[in-house]
Amino acid sequence: MPGQQNQRYEGVRADLAKMPRTWLITGVAGFIGANLLADLLSLGQNVVGLDNFSTGHRSNIADVLASSGASSRFRMIEGDTRDIDACRAACAGVDFVLHQAALGSVPRSIHDPLTSSHVNVDGLMNVLFAAHGAGVQRVVYASSSSVYGDSRHLPQVEARTGRLLSPYAATKAVNEMYADVFQRTYGIETVGLRYFNVFGPRQDPNGAYAAVIPRWIAALLRGERCKIFGDGETSRDFCYIANVLQANVLAATTGAAASTGTAYNIACGDSTSLTSLFYLIRDGLAKFDSAVATAEPQYEAFRPGDINQSFANISKAREALGYEPSHRIGEGMAATLDWYVQHGASRVG
Asked: Can you list the alpha helix ranges (DSSP code H) found in the chain?
């Protein structure tokens, strides 16, 4: 694995391989969920998956099971986190919950704030309540860098947030509040992970709310222009999926009680402008398809709700969880482009 070796993380993985646990992944058919499934099955873990397939793809699960040969250690429940009975069934006999199910995308939440709230807020509430009733040890849940809103403090530190800029951001801020309340009121341990622009294999390039990296990869390989909203100086802390897998495993297994009941930035601690990102993707793809080499982006107006600058301080996760990014953007992008070229950039379930 590229990047800095993390001995603490490798030790945790070795311990899990020796003593398998049972994990629930909500949103298991999605980009992050399916990668978590592959990682846990590779460690010999037992996994329960919960998904309603509204945004995730059955093919993601099929691919993971086919490549892992571990279908006997996986149990799939087709259901919705808004259904408390589905959550109770999924939590039965589980040690750790990795709650990834959500409706992502700032633009989607602006278009339909009610559904975003029902899925993201009510869904987490049901998972927390069901996990508590089932005696689950810990719930690790996906939060977001969007909670920083209009804060101009860079790099972004967990304790300093600004005014929220979208309904999606509001749902994630409420998630953190509910998780904190559930730990203090009911005693179930919770850990929030504030993801910063995660990317990597299996991320869906299609649809109106597709993330920027897979959308641009697909567009370039189809010979289409890539749209940059704004002047291109908007920046993001792009985080490769392997770093997110590491964070989830560390957050679920840390034995320090003081490390729970809070949220952590999960990123690389780097900042890349959208214009720089475009040329990184373009030049990487040009190695596979020379026709891409001369492509240029198309600049359009800023979108409402978008954060202008995103750049994480990851000291808290380093110190409390032992988190250390294994892949920087260049390493992660090379692996991502290779995957999309091999699998076809338009691939969906």
From this structure: 7-18, 31-42, 58-68, 84-91, 106-111, 113-117, 123-134, 167-186, 212-221, 241-253, 274-286, 315-321, 329-343
For tokens 């026709």, what's the residue? 291
Instruction: Provide CB contacts within 8 A for 183, sequence distance 6+.
Output: 189, 190, 260, 261
User: Is 168 a known active-site residue?
Assistant: yes
pTM (2 decimals)? 0.93
Tell me the two tokens of residue 190: 């919770």
- Residue ranges and CATH numbers for the domains of the chain are 9-196+240-269+307-327 (3.40.50.720)
Catalytic option among 9, 141, 168, 340? 168
pLDDT by position in tens, the chain (length 349): 444 568 889 999 999 999 999 999 999 999 999 999 999 999 999 999 999 999 999 999 999 999 988 899 999 999 999 999 999 999 999 999 999 999 988 889 999 999 999 999 999 999 999 999 999 999 999 999 999 999 989 999 999 999 999 999 999 999 999 999 999 999 999 999 999 999 999 998 887 667 899 999 999 999 999 999 988 888 999 999 999 999 999 999 998 888 999 999 999 999 999 999 999 999 999 999 899 999 999 998 888 777 778 899 999 999 999 999 999 999 999 999 999 998 875 543 3
Three-state secondary structure call for residue 263: strand
